[in-house]
Amino acid sequence: MSSREITEDDIESLAVGAWILGTGGGGNPYLSLLNMRVLYREGKRVQLIDAEDLGDDAYVAVIAGMGAPLVGIERLTDHRVFTRAAVFMEEHTRRRFDAVMGMEIGGGNGVRPLMVAANLGIPVVDSDTMGRAYPEAQMTSVAVGKLKPCPMTVVDVRGLEAVVETVPTWKWAERVGRKIVVEYGSTASTCQPPRTGAEVKKWGIHGTTTKAIAIGRAVREAQRTHDDPVAAILAVEPGKLLYRGKVVDVERRATEGFLRGVVRLEGMDDWRGSAMQIDFQNEWIVARRDGEPAAMSPDLICVLDSVSGEAVGTETIRYGQRVTVIALPGPDIFLTPEGLAHVGPRAFGYDLDFRSVFAS
Amino acid sequence: MRRIGIDVGGTNTDAVLIEDGKVVGAVKAPTSQDVTSGILDSLKKLGATGVLKGADGTPKKVDGVMIGTTHFINAVVQRRHLTKVAALRLGLPSGASLPPFCDWPEDLATLVRGGVWMVEGGHEYDGRPFMPLDEAAVLKAAQEMKAAGLRAVGISSVFSPLDPSHEKRAAELVASVIPDAAITCSSDLGRIGLLERENAGLLNAALADLSRDTIAAFEQAIRDSGIAAPLFITQNDGTVAEASQARRLPVYSFASGATNSMRGAAYLSGLSDAMVIDVGGTTTDVGQLKLGFPREANSVVKVGGVRTLFRMPDLLSIGLGGGSHVALDPLSIGPVSVGYRLVTDGIAFGGAQLTTTDVAVAAGILDLGDRTKVAHLDAATCARVFSEAARLAEEAVDRMKTEAGDVPLIAVGGGAFLIPEIMAGVSQVIHVEHGDCANAVGAAIAQVSGECDQIFKDMTRVEALAAAQEIANDRAAAAGADRTTLHTIESEDMPLAYLPGNSVRVRVRVVGDVAATA
């Protein structure tokens, strides 16, 4: 099994890159980063492996925090509780995990699998099931693959522990899981349905931790040398620069437990005179330029601070911010008809046919 | 109404007297090492102009002396005069892996961290208790603090902005063990975001001794000057707090200098919605006035390397000022400045460093120093330098604008001569009389505020806003505002993702005039 050690500097980069891959949602990884600094100071280290290195019958934990980011900044992320969610799953299924992976690379969840790996002394798989952040449990590659949607452990720091033992579909897993999370106070550590090595190899979205580290490293390096961080991202990722502008209007509303809304931008530089509007549902979903669709899920729409290159979230974006909008290619699995049924524009209520920014 | 406003800057201490809405006296004195003698000097200078005496020679009644100072933020940045703090967090079993001080720069943490105690307590986002407060553990912590000789205490609790009761109860318990404790509750500082709010509280606690001594010295300076008037300290949001309240919350004065300039600019120009550019000796601050107050930064602000989140103005600072170094080939201005050494190091004053002030003297815009010493700077060179300064200013103004159209820009500060009359994106550049002491004017006219920032559930938006407004009004009145003059200057609501029951977070801020003292 080939593996490489994730350095402390890699984790700093991962936090920046995961926030960018969060496409506006997923929560800022800062508190998860602080937890990792604590663990590394204690001498713990994390190894990163490729999905290809897993045996077909390897047993892989899928880690995710669920809840409202706002609650997460009061009830601070704790590495021990995430570890408990995985250990609880081991106890429940009477099987030891061989490795850990994340449900979503975008936002705080991009860093959390590392906490569990550090504590359990097992490697992190360089794969996830979203390739970005999405608001719901059925918006994953494993749901597209119709893999088993249970069991799931849901753990609260006070010792509240639940197992969602049997649900027929991923939508049910989302509904039942969400109810538990709300009762816990809208934040919980979860171990999602465990996967075998074969499943991860077939249905995982691969190389995403490495990708997040590379993006974060490019941004941090550009910040240090006072170069253009957006150009630095586009030098390491096959993305497209969509727009540069200024936020002139933010409209937010909470519906059905989601933060929905619209951000309007006014063009600067080469985009002077052109307007962009980006709709969001926790994450950026559809960008329109002068009324015409310019990018949409599952392509990643990343809104970045034009100066720092760091991600701007849908909860915190505000009037007057200078932002640059780039698109990154969506994971292949989501470009299939089945994938688009889960995360295409229609899954978010838009009567639009998916057209990729990257279609030639 | 007659008030004296004083701004203690890095270079000068400015004082103005405002009488019935007019600036009737304005003086500058050098800022002293000990701060307070500079204040006394400026008050004496103001007195020497005769404005504090009536026609018959008797002293006029002054309603208040409002002081804006950078003393407290400088203490944090320079790591001086800080007190060791006991941190008490109520929230276990949550957050145990990230204890208080966990994201502080090591040098500052070493100076301030007197000890860390975490006990059970705190609330949920919807007001349910997260865990019952472990009072026995609080008492035990207090005894350990006492044994360690700690007096300054910072108390934080999970979701305390929504329900401060655990913090308040813990404060009572600590005070019962350490009667002379200087306690800061994080809920007094507001915002949601435990680490950042806690950090602000710990910094505040670390300033307890300095705050007590400084404010006592300010009061002494006022008495020594022969003026009989209450002391107010200006706050980050452009309001004032009575000395007794300000003593408890020194962090609220961290950015008051820049705020005062903006408020003063609004007052002197008569505009309440405009951009303000305050050009000092070393830096230029750009901000936006809305309804006469600076727009607030709604995000994390680092102070001395510590992430904090509380009331601060949203400012952009660039390295442009009256003392900025100028290089001609290739042309560049700042960010390095000669600062207060302008009058010795500037070429027009016989020094060797070319500054923006020298260029202004050469161009005949300023009449300072010796113009013959800068005669070698021809008109074309001066024009190039001014156009570069204008470009820097234009870019800064554009970055801080929140609307597309042209907006009025008020230019204040000693370096305002660098701001041209015509700028891109600006409808009109307004230079005001007394603009060089806008900060002291802003201090003199400051009002009292109250704020509410919390989550409301199962209410209509209108009901939630009304409930928040009532809380804000009560807080303003408690801080010394005249209830009849209160009005809302900020009101925003934000629906919350994932939270059930139509949860909405509402923030309302009201201001009013200082209530007349009996």
Under CATH, the topology of the largest domain in chain B can be stated as: Nucleotidyltransferase, domain 5
Largest sheet of chain A, in brief, is: 7 strands, antiparallel
Q: Mean pLDDT of chain B, rounded to whole units?
A: 89
Number of DSSP helical runs of chain B: 14
- Assembly state of the chains shown: heterodimer
**Domain tally of chain B:** 4
CATH architecture level-2 label of the largest domain in chain B: 2-Layer Sandwich
Provide a short characterization of the protein structure.
Chain A contains eleven helices and 17 strands.
Give a verbal description of the structure.
- The complex is a heterodimer of chains A (360) and B (518).
- Chain A is of the alpha+beta class and 360 residues long.
- Helices cover 31% and strands 29% of the residues of chain A.
- In chain A, α4 crosses α5 (112-120).
- The mean pLDDT of chain A is 94.
- Chain A has a seven-stranded antiparallel sheet with strand order 15-14-13-12-11-17-16, with no helix packed on it. Chain A has a five-stranded mixed sheet with strand order 4-3-9-7-8, with helices on both faces.
- Chain A has helices at 8-21, 30-41, 69-72, 79-93, 112-120, 141-144, 170-183, 197-203, 208-225, 229-236, 337-343; strands spanning 3-6, 46-49, 59-67, 99-102, 124-125, 127-128, 152-155, 161-164, 187-196, 205-206, 240-255, 258-267, 275-281, 283-289, 292-296, 300-305, 322-328.
- Chain A has two domains: 3-206, CV3147-like domain (CV3147-like fold); 240-348, Beta Barrel (CV3147-like), CATH 2.40.390.
- Chain B is of the alpha/beta class and 518 residues long.
- Chain B has four domains: 1-79 and 209-254, Nucleotidyltransferase, domain 5; 85-206, Rossmann fold (3-Layer(aba) Sandwich), CATH 3.40.50; 317-438, no CATH class; 447-512.
- Helix content of chain B is 31%, strand content 27%.
- Chain B has helices spanning 36-48, 71-77, 106-112, 135-147, 165-177, 194-206, 208-224, 243-248, 256-269, 342-345, 356-362, 379-400, 438-444, 461-478; strands at 2-8, 12-19, 22-30, 64-69, 85-92, 113-120, 152-157, 182-185, 231-234, 240-242, 274-279, 284-290, 293-294, 301-303, 306-308, 316-318, 324-328, 331-337, 407-412, 426-431, 448-456, 487-495, 504-512.
- In chain B, the strands form six sheets. Chain B has a six-stranded mixed sheet with strand order 3-2-1-4-9-10, sandwiched between helices.
- In chain B, α11 (356-362) crosses α12.
- The two termini of chain B are 14 Å apart.
- The interface between A and B is large, with 39 and 41 residues.
- Chain B: Residues 197-390 form the Hydantoinase A/oxoprolinase domain.
- Chain B: It holds the Pfam family Hydant_A_N.
- Chain B: This is Hydantoinase/oxoprolinase family protein.
- Chain B: Residues 3-176 form the Hydantoinase/oxoprolinase N-terminal domain.
- Chain B: It comes from Reyranella aquatilis.
